[in-house]
Amino acid sequence: MDTSAVVLRDQLRQAVEECSARGLVFAAKWAAEQLCSLSPTTLGFKLPASHASFAQESAQAALDAEEKDSVSLAKCLFDLREFDRAAYKLQKCNGPRAVFLRLYSQYLSRERRVGEAAPNSNKSAASDTALSAEESDRRRTAGEADRELLAIRDELETLDSDSSIDAFQLYLLGLVHKALGQRLRAQEALLRSVCAYEFNWSAWQLLETCVDTVQQPVEQLSAKVSGAGWMQHAFMAQLLVEQFGGGNNEFGVHHRVLEQLFPNSQFVLGLRAVRHYSMREFEEARQLFVQLQHADPYALELSDIHSNILYVMEDRARLGELAHRCAALDRFRPETCCVIGNYYSLRREHEKAVGYFQRALQLDNKYLAAWTLMGHEFIEMKNTAAAVDAYRHAVDTDARDYRAWYGLGQTYEMLNMPHYACNYYMRAAALRPYDSRMWCALGSCYEASSQRTPAIESYRRALLGTAENEAVAITRLAHLYDDAGDRPKAAYYFQLLVEHAVKNAGALQDTAPSNSGLPLQGQGQMDELATACLFLASYEHDRGNPSVALRYLAQVVDGANSGGISQQRVDEAKAMMRA
To answer: Which one in 3, 121, 265, 303 has a CA-CA gap of 20 to 30 Å to 416?
Structure first.
């Protein structure tokens, strides 16, 4: 084993110990998983400069050693989720580890009380009076909890002003700022935390939720974390997948570094799987999820995304198998409820699906996927008011959830309110600028509200994104320019449509102003192609190219022999040939 492997192994072992001692179990688990996936052979990769150890001043280390027994007792109580009791046992302790555990216990106790006081997601509004009383109680409890947050924040800021705050306490300060809605201050504290000690994965994950890539360029953020060692690659790879769907070219750079460091890591393989899912490459994503399942058959992480893929592929057998497996492992995990909800949704049992998504929210009221999927179910049930409520809960939980913004746009479009729909589609497009579905939906709304110029701009922007809705954008652009009397540009896009059809063996996409992007079958496809050929024939005839015009007309007449083209289009072509 080379020096790089030895150093990396020591760093991860210390991370497991330090995070476990402070109750950061998810960060400790992540570090332990990477430790076990580290190749025992030569890495062949030069590690970037990083903070190899969690350094403490001698006085702080002495305090931690002196208070070790009290901290051990408090940690046991913490593990038993007796947070108030754990904080009480540490009242007289001043060591950095004891201070963190005491304040973190107080924070988690506050979170639990707020969660218990929150209104139940599946409770119907029986009466305005009852709802008002419940809301009043919730707000009173939240106000008391906010005072607790302010007290925790003040104590941490006092430590910061005395220059005695450590990396883990900075993480907790960021957590408190985030809970108080102070996103920029949280981001600043978390950046300081990960630069002081990079191996706290919880700090990186929280930092990712504080980043708004619409207002803050990725390059600027990358520069800020460039001094944080190799962990920056794990953070940037996840950030790019979550916020850009992996479409950004830089993802490959960061992912290659991780593959060299951890060739057997399920985290690294999971990033690839989620990237394929985000890019709508469902079969490739499904195969990677199967690999993940074989590598760790008892893991439930990412099973909700796996179920989304099987749902889109309409693979009821595999989705049912996945639902049974997850239920056998742990029925009381939000991911399991999400998988079962997707299974019932695919079976068109939407009421049962909603019930399972509500159960997921009872287990974790910040579980974003459940709010969004529940909104989709209410759309299927034609309950637009409930759908709007679910989508709004999703964006309140995370304003960067493009699926919820897109769902709001679809809902308001169903309600024939295109101006509202445009606003929500714009939010979705800003979050997913390379997803052609967002821009096609926005263009459709602009068309519905008779705004031709922004509709053209939206469809042109769609052509810069994914190829999934390329034919939709091309067709709408051709018709919009034709309606505007700009025949040269209309001819350009109709020609693109014909070339697209030839390239894809005649498989045009739905050309009506729709958000589905699903292929039409039969006459609709071929009729649109015939319309393009008829326009191009007329255009070329007017330009003095009768031979080219005849070729387009011949395509329409010949296409009638294979079926799919309406007789009206064929008669128009024959009439033009006789003229």
So the answer is: 121
Token pair belonging to 511: 């050309």
Residue among 476, 558, 536 nearest 509 (CA): 476
Residue 519: phi and psi, rounded to 5, are -65, 135
Give the N- to C-terminal CA distance of the chain in Å, as an integer.
Answer: 83
Contact present, 250 and 238 (Cβ < 8 Å): no
For 131, phi then psi, to 5°, come to -65, -40
Q: Produce one character per residue of 458-470: b if its CB has 16 or more CB atoms within 10 Å, e if not.
A: bbebbbebbebbb
Q: Point out the least confidently predicted range of 146-160, 185-199, 418-432, 551-565.
A: 551-565
Joined together, the tokens standing for residue 379 give 């759309």
Contact 274, 302 (CB under 8 A): yes
Percent of the chain clearing pLDDT 70 (strictly above): 84
Q: Which residue has the tokens 């445009």?
A: 422
Report pTM.
0.84
Q: Which of 103, 67, 68, 61 is nearest to 86 (CA)?
A: 103
In one letter, which amino acid is 198? E
Longest dimension (CA), the chain: 101
Residue position matching structure tokens 């007289």: 92
For position 12, what pLDDT does the model report?
93
Q: What is the dihedral of CA 224, 226, 230, 236, to 10 degrees?
A: 50
Tokens describing residue 320:
């049912």
Provide mean pLDDT across the span 184-190.
94
Phi, psi of 265 (to 5 degrees): -80, 130
* C-alpha 190, offset from chain centre: 21
What is the C-alpha separation between 115 and 129, in angstroms, rounded? 22
* Token output for 237: 């790879």
246 close to 240: Cβ distance less than 8 angstroms: yes
Q: How far, in Å, CA of 405 to CA of 419, rounded?
A: 14
Where helices occur in 1-127 by DSSP H, the ranges are 3-21, 25-37, 58-66, 68-79, 83-89, 96-117
Tell me the per-residue pLDDT of 499-534, one tens digit each, with 9 for 90 and over: 888 777 543 333 333 333 323 334 566 778 888 888
Structure tokens at 567: 């007789």
C-alpha distances out from residue 126 to 122, 130, 131, 552, Å: 12, 7, 8, 65
Asked which of 128-137, 411-420, 479-488, 568-577 is least confident by mean pLDDT, the reply is 128-137
Contact (CB, 8 A) for 107 and 175: yes
Handedness of CA 105, 111, 115, 117 (dihedral sign): positive
pLDDT surpasses 70 at 560? no
Residue 546 confidence (pLDDT) above 90 = no
- Helices within 180-314 (DSSP H only): 183-196, 201-209, 218-224, 231-244, 250-261, 266-278, 282-295, 303-312
